[in-house]
Amino acid sequence: MTNGQELHTTLEWRVHAPDGTVEILVQEELGPRWRLFRWMHGLVAEFIIKLSTFMLKAWNIGVNDPKKFIHCLKVGTALSLVSLFYYMRTLYEGVGGNAMWAVMTVVVVFEYSIGATLYKCVNRAAGTLVAGVLGFGVHWMAIQCGEEIEPIVLEISVFLLAAAATFSRFIPTVKARFDYGAMVFILTFCLVSISGYRVDQLFEMAHHRLLTVTLGASICIITSMLVCPIWAGQELHALITRNLEKLSESLDACFIDFFADRGVKNVSHGYFSKMNQAYKCVLNSKTSEESMANFARWEPAHGDFKFRHPWKQYLKVGAAIRSCAYCIETLNGCINSDIRAPETLKKHLKDMCVSLSSYSSNVIKELAAMMKTMTKSSSIHISIGQMNIAVYELQDALKNVPSQVVVQILQASNNSINKETTNTRPLLEILPLATIASLLIELASRVEVIVKEVNQLADQADFALNSNSGSKETHSIT
Questions:
Q1: Cα(447)–Cα(391) distance, rounded to whole angstroms?
Q2: Which of 2, 39, 64, 187 is the most buried (most CB within 10 A)?
Q3: Cα–Cα distance, 208 to 205 (Å, whole number)
Q4: How far apart are CA 122 and CA 185, in angstroms?
C-alpha cells in the first residue's frame, strides 16, 4: 500500500469499443526495474516537496527578520578574514602554525548581538590568560619538586582548580557574567598543565594560543560593530516597548469581544481573538529579557544608551508587565467561561468596565510611546487620574447592583445553607461578571506599578521631556 492506494504491479493495454465495452488485449507483469523506478520517482518527488517547503520557511524567516540574514553574512565575513592567517604563508608563520585556533575562536564566540559577542570574547580571552599564567606557575612548581613528584603535583592542581572553577559556575553572580570564562579556564588550564609534562616549548605554545585567540576575538568584535551592528540594549528596549503595545492590544480586544453585540462579534471574532492572544508573547519573554540585559551590560555607550545605562531597571519593568499579563490571562479565562452572566447585569456594568479597560489601555499606550521615543510625558498623570476615576465608578456600580439580582443571590445562598434546595444558579451567573470586575480593578493597580517602574527608568536614564508638553519642567509620571 502506498498513500492509501494499492501498488499496481501489472501493465494493461485496453481497447474501448463504441458500444462501451472494454477489451483487455495485453496484460504484462511489471518487472523489478520498473517497480524500482517508480519507487525512486516517488522518493525524489517527496524530497523535492520537502526541500521546497523548507526553503520557503527559511525565506519567510529572512524576510520577517532581515537582521538574521545579515548576521549570517557577518559570520561568513569574519571566517573569511580569519582564514587568511591559514592560507597566507607570511601570516601563517607569524602565528606559529596555530591559526586554526583563531578560526575556532570565531566559530565559538561570534554571537547575534554585540553584547553577546563581547561577553564571549572577553570571557574567552580572560579565561585563557588566567589559566595560562596559573598553568605556568603550577608547571614551574612541579618541576622544582623533582621528576618523581612532578606528575603528582600536576594531578592535584588539575583536581583542585577544575573543581573550584566548576563550583564557581553555580554561584549566581559568576554564572550570569563569567560562566563561559570559567569553562574556558578549565579547558585551557588542563591543556597547559597536562601538555606541559610532555612538551618542551610550553611557553611558545601558550603564547601562540593566546595570540590566535586574541586575533579571532578582535576580528569578531570589529566585524560585529562595523557591519550592521545589532545591539543587545536596543533589542531589549524594543522588546519592552513591544510588550507594552501587545498588552494594550490584548486589553482592548478582551472587552470589545466580550461586550460586543452578537452580530458584530460574529463578524470580527477572529480578528479580536487574534489580538487577545498577544499577551502570551509577554508571558514567555522573561528569559529573553534576562539574557539581553546581561549582554547589554558588556556593550559600550551607543546611540541614546549612555555608559552605565540602567539595564537592571528594564528587568523590573518587564516583571511588572508580566504581572499585568497574568491578570489579563485570568481575565480572559473568566470571559471565556461557559457560565454566562445575565444580559441585564452585563448592561448594568458594561459602560464602567469598558471605560476602565479603555483608560487602562490608554495609560499603557502612553508608556509604550514614552519607551519608543525615550521621552517623559507630562500628561500621563491625567490618564492615570481618569483610570482611577473609572475604578471608583466601577466599584460604585458593583455596590449598586439591581436589587432584584441581590435578592435572588441571597435567596440562593440561604437555600444552600439550609440545604432546602440546591438551586444556586443565580449566584453562579453573577460570579463570573463580579470576578471580571474585580480583576479589572486589580489590573488597574498593576498598571500603576508599571507606571512607577517606567518612571524610575525615565529618571535613571535621563529621558528628555516631551516637546509637545510646552513646559521645560520635568514632571513625574505619577
A1: 12
A2: 187
A3: 5
A4: 12
Give SS3 for 379: coil
The Cβ of residue 141 has, within 10 Å, a number of other Cβ atoms equal to: 13
In this prediction, residue 475 carries a pLDDT of: 37
Of the three residues 206, 226, 246, the one that is the final residue of a domain is: 226
With residues binned 3-state (H G I as helix, E B as strand, rest as coil), the percentages for the chain, rounded to 5, are: 75, 5, 20
> 127 near 185, Cβ under 8 Å?
yes
> How many angstroms separate the first and last alpha carbons of the chain?
71
Residues in the chain, total: 478
Q: Are residues 278 and 199 in the same domain?
A: no
* C-alpha cell, 173: 553572580
Enter the pTM of the model. 0.76
Q: Is 458 found in the same domain as 310? A: yes
Asked if residues 209 and 170 have their Cβ atoms less than 8 Å apart, the reply is no
Task: Dihedral sign for Cα 286, 288, 291, 292, please.
Answer: negative
The 3 state secondary structure assigned to 73-141 is HHHHHHHHHHHHHHHCHHHHHHCCCCHHHHHHHHHHHCCCCHHHHHHHHHHHHHHHHHHHHHHHHHHHH
pLDDT tens-digit series, residues 298-336: 999 888 888 889 999 999 999 999 999 998 888 887 777
Burial profile 166-190: b = 16 or more Cβ within 10 angstroms, e = fewer: eebeeeeeeeebbbbbbbbbbbbbe
Instruction: Tell me, yes or no, whether 252 and 281 share the same domain.
Output: yes
Question: What is the structure's pLDDT at 428?
Answer: 61
User: Are residues 219 and 267 located together in one domain of the fold?
Assistant: no
For cell 546611540, the residue is 303
Based on the number of CB atoms within 10 Å of its own CB, is 318 exposed (0-12), middle (13-18) or buried (19 or more)?
Answer: buried
Phi/psi for 136 (5° steps) reads -65, -40
Concatenated DSSP letters of 151-193: HHHHHHHHHHHHHHHHHHTTSHHHHHHHHHHHHHHHHHHHHHH
Q: For residue 391, how far is the Cα from the chain centroid? A: 34
Q: Under a CB-based contact definition with an 8 Å cutoff, are residues 295 and 113 in contact?
A: yes
By residue range, what is the domain housing residue 99? 66-226
Q: Which three cell numbers stand for residue 13?
A: 493495454
Compute the distance between CA of residue 281 and CA of residue 286 in angstroms, rounded to an integer: 10
Mean pLDDT, the chain, rounded, equals 78
Predicted confidence (pLDDT) per residue in 345-357, tens digit: 667 677 888 888 8
In a domain, 13, yes or no: no
